User: Which sequence fits this backbone?
């Protein structure tokens, strides 16, 4: 079976990622529904417009978001930021998203278009500052507002909403650009108090994949009641350890946005940062966000390997992250992984040029570097550098076994502290160059 | 004519870089000689050991160097630093360099080996702290000291030194690893006072090209008399605008070193930072170093294009450089250049995520981005963004003409100040991945 191309234009691998990573059923949070359709912005007639709508009216919903730090922020990013500022993250009941056009570098008219998009949804649900907007696709082109407005109308008027698996999956498809599979996950959690709640998330591919295409987008919705400041701090913390710990090509787009809605449909006390269960929920949201972010790496253009870079026993998280990122972004490390080369020299080199906040984070005589298998085979850990000393008798056969795995781990033990950071990256292949070197068409 | 592979193992292009970039004759500085031979460290029998020797005894020579900022510094880097510290950059009469083994991540024994290498040369020339050492090649292996010691002996005892073009070219060949051509340039300069002097420079490839290969090395020698502190400040300034403004893959090795010797063989007043001609000489050394650094980019693995990224009218040099570097290192920009895609979105995006020192360096409404032809064809400048507004009617035919040139310029006019930085980069091709994904062999 080949990868389904129903919403996704490009199949770069024979590995069947669609059947591996796309769920066939799921349980979704109470009080949300998802609607999508093909507005005609995408020329191929695929789904390109979606809305997540909160229908729970028992309590006001809350919203939080983390936006790109790129100095060129696209219109939908600027507007969504403003909506959150004005609303204080309360009473946000909808997210509207389109693919095919990023509404980026479009100036004032772009901002007007984004406002109109939000305005149409606000009008339908009868409230102000109630809608976040996201766009992904070609940069520097205006939104086709006639198609988008009429599409939003249709989703509401013809009630294209649903709360079943198909509706959510279609929504995940509608945000795809050159992704080879839609990224949707959903999980039910139980807290010690007995309260059960659900997280549903979706994302679209990083790597500014197709020429002029942009954006990493992610959405997480939950039926827990969470105060807006608690939701924001929870999401910020989760993103730091998930979406900000992935690398496909190290480029950060003008549209990157991860947002979260909590509608309080579960009948329990509102979660605040001082709530006894706050930390546990934060951890659950973090690992959920990590699963979602990892799917983005798995769909990295041309990638044949999913690599976890684990920097542990670091003096602080920030420096662990800086080193994990340097390794994950190094073109030489990424090509070595592709070439299945146990090239610890390149890993060490990347660690050496990482811009540390504290020089004490790195002590040459304490560093250990290993490759770690993830398929249960032994020995799990193959040591390349022990206490700063390169192992000259590395078992090359075992190295080549581990490096031929589609999933593997690079483990760096700094031995200078107790913090750790995991980063997820992929290899760099000729196929990446081919995809990204294609002329815009 | 094909690329000569006499010292260089890999020909990745049909373009005849050897005949384009390797000089067939030259005038060299007075009072220096160059010696090289095949010591046997390189298995293929190519030149792999070289010595630059000052023979002018009219004045003490001076030396300066700029070393890698990688936290893992190779033994020759640590030792050469020490030699400069102890000698104060005076009386340094030799540079000994080997290829085939980088003597990096070799610990104390590596440092002993480097000391022995320097010791053999010092003994031959009869003075202490008179020799700098550089190594390039495989990381994590010990130098084969028997071969190297005996090679140094032979260069002196059999007088393998010469001051002619062939001797200098052979020296340039002896530092090659996977370079496809040796990098040697030499120029004569005349100062307003009438004084004539010569600069000769050589370098070896950046990009930690072959698996486990490392290092950018560069040497510049001159017959001007220059005080050691003036030489150091001149070289540091030149490197900031030359070797620190090139990108092949953004990886910085453990061995990177650029050094300079001045032997004072030209009979003129010693140049100090306060000398009337200091600034002019510094500018000449800077543009000379730029020419040398550019050769390294021209030999970038798999590269088909040489691209000048020119960020002008910036508030300060540092931010101009940070932006030029972000563009030059972006995998998406590099693949777009390869794909001959006028993709200003990726350029803007890279500018947007560059880590600026001063936010005022970037004003969206003032930015201009163009592609510039370098072959004399008109219109020379093709504007993509004017005062922050993307040009939607870009002449695609002209864009494709400019982008098909082997040499071209990306011009970013920030309009926020008067400083500028030029950075040199190459495109990213499937061939790069192939070269760097090869298993160590």
Assistant:
């Amino acid at each position: 079976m080949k990868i389904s191309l129903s919403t996704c234009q490009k199949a770069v691998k024979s590995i069947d990622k669609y059947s591996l990573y796309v769920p066939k059923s799921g349980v979704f949070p109470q009080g949300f529904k998802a609607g999508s359709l093909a507005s005609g912005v995408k020329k191929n007639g695929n789904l390109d417009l979606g809305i997540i709508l909160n229908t729970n009216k028992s309590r006001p919903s809350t919203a939080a978001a983390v936006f790109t730090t790129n100095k060129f922020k696209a219109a939908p990013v600027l507007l969504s930021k403003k909506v959150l500022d004005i609303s204080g993250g309360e009473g946000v009941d909808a997210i509207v998203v389109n693919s095919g056009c990023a509404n980026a570098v479009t100036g004032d008219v772009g901002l007007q278009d984004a406002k109109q998009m939000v305005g149409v949804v606000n009008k339908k649900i009868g409230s102000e500052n109630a809608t976040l907007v996201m766009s992904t696709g070609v940069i520097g082109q205006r939104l086709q507002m006639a198609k988008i407005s009429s599409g939003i109308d249709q989703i509401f008027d013809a009630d294209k909403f649903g709360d079943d698996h198909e509706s959510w999956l279609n929504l995940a498809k509608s945000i795809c650009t050159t992704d080879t599979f839609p990224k949707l996950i959903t999980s039910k959690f139980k807290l010690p108090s007995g309260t059960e709640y659900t997280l549903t998330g979706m994302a679209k591919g990083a790597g500014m994949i197709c020429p002029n295409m942009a954006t990493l987008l992610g959405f997480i919705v939950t039926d827990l009641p969470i105060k807006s400041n608690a939701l924001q701090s929870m999401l910020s913390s989760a993103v730091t350890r998930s979406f900000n710990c992935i690398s496909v090509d190290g480029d950060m787009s003008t549209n990157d946005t991860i947002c979260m809605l909590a509608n309080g449909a579960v009948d329990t006390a509102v979660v605040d940062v001082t709530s006894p269960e706050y930390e546990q929920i934060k951890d659950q949201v973090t690992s959920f966000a990590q699963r979602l972010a990892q799917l983005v790496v798995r769909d990295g253009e041309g990638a044949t390997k999913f690599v976890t870079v684990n920097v542990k026993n670091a003096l602080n998280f920030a420096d662990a992250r800086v080193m994990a990122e340097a390794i994950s972004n190094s073109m030489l490390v990424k090509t070595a992984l592709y070439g299945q080369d146990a090239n610890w020299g390149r890993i060490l080199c990347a660690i050496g040029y990482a811009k540390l906040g504290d020089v004490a984070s790195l002590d040459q005589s304490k560093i250990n570097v290993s490759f770690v298998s993830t398929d249960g085979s032994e020995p799990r850990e193959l040591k390349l550098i022990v206490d700063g000393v390169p192992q000259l008798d590395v078992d090359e056969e075992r190295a080549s076994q581990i490096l031929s795995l589609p999933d593997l781990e690079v483990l760096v033990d700094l031995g200078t502290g107790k913090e750790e950071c995991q980063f997820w990256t992929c290899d760099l292949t000729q196929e990446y160059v081919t995809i990204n070197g294609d002329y815009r068409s």
